[in-house]
Write a structure and sequence with these properties.
Helix content: 40-55%
Number of strands: 8
Largest sheet: 8 strands, mixed
CATH superfamily: Alpha/Beta hydrolase fold, catalytic domain
Order of helices and strands: EEEHEHEHEHHHHHEHEHH
CATH architecture: 3-Layer(aba) Sandwich
Radius of gyration: 18 Å
Organism: Nocardioides aquiterrae
Strand content: 15-25%
Number of domains: 1
CATH class: Alpha Beta
InterPro entries: AB_hydrolase (IPR050471), AB_hydrolase_1 (IPR000073), AB_hydrolase_fold (IPR029058)
Distance between the termini: 47 Å
Oligomer: single chain
Protein name: Alpha/beta fold hydrolase
CATH topology: Rossmann fold
Strand order of the largest sheet: 1-2-4-3-5-6-7-8
Keywords: Hydrolase
Number of helices: 11
GO molecular function: hydrolase activity
């Protein structure tokens, strides 16, 4: 299966920031996949392979502050809305009129936000473990100390980076390599990213979500306080074409992905078999 690495640039107040992506497969049936918070786009590679094997043209993206994309130390560069605008910029760069957009955790929220701010560009949604109202407190407990450490104890972040970066990714299991990549952070950029996500818009409002009419697969994790099952259930109920699937565990799609891969393939291929939606003109 062909894999091609590309890059594009987005404008900011401080200049231009570079984003990197990987393409799998070819054709006009586009799918864009986004990783969880702090993780590289490589975490989406197994699902990208499964989707591309069915004839879909899949692109995995490192949003700003993730993976091999730029990491500005400016909190204004980071928010769910900024990330959604980067997805739209990616589609423009690729010449893709529409795509099925999906992601995990933060990536799921970004996909949802993309459908809210650019409904004409989204063909369908693949959302794993979205984080809405029920995940706020756990998010503060987990990422709050990390923000404080990056801001006031930057040496701790630098030390972790120096310890983990030299480990060859080829000699460790795939998911261990993803965890090591997530530890490869710069303190100033990490503090800016977490600050931006904490104090920016986290997801579309319930009213906005109810207006998202594209076919959507929502996968919820049981026993995952950071990404509560209740948020996934609520979201699937709010979306007019939402379908909820309960994962057996938070690790099912990582360790035994076949069942959830089939559900994702079914949703994505079904979106591209259906006629393209026509937007009604305003009155």
């Amino acid at each position: 299966m062909s894999e091609r690495i590309g890059q594009f640039f987005v404008a900011s107040d401080a200049g231009r920031d570079r984003l990197e992506y990987t393409e799998y497969g070819s054709g006009d049936a586009w799918v864009v996949l986004l990783p969880a918070e702090l993780a590289p786009r490589r975490m989406m590679q197994p699902l990208a392979h499964a989707l591309a094997a069915e004839g879909l043209h899949v692109v995995t993206l490192d949003p700003l502050g993730h993976g091999r994309s730029d990491r500005p130390a400016d909190p204004h560069a980071y928010s769910v809305t900024e990330y959604a605008e980067q997805v739209v910029a990616l589609l423009d760069h690729l010449g893709a009129a529409q795509a099925v957009v999906g992601g995990v955790s933060l990536g799921a929220n970004v996909a949802l936000e993309t459908a809210a701010i650019a409904p004409g560009r989204v063909r369908g949604l693949l959302l794993e473990a979205p984080v809405l109202d029920n995940g706020v407190e756990a998010g503060v407990l987990v990422f709050g100390p990390l923000l404080l450490a990056a801001r006031f104890l930057p040496l701790s972040v630098t030390l972790l980076r120096r310890l983990t970066r030299p480990v060859p990714r080829g000699i460790v299991p795939f998911w261990a390599g993803i965890a090591l990549d997530a530890c490869d952070q710069r303190a100033d950029a990490l503090a800016a990213l977490l600050h931006g996500l904490f104090f920016g818009r986290a997801a579309p409002s319930s009213k906005e979500r109810r207006r998202i009419t594209v076919p959507t697969l929502v996968v919820g994790h049981p026993f995952d306080p950071l990404r509560p099952l209740a948020d996934a259930v609520t979201l699937a109920d709010e979306l007019p074409q939402g379908t909820f699937v309960r994962a057996r565990s938070a690790l099912e799609w990582r360790l035994t992905p076949e069942r959830l891969d089939r559900a994702a393939v079914g949703l994505a291929t079904g979106c591209w078999k259906a006629p393209r939606r026509r937007r009604r003109s305003g009155a």
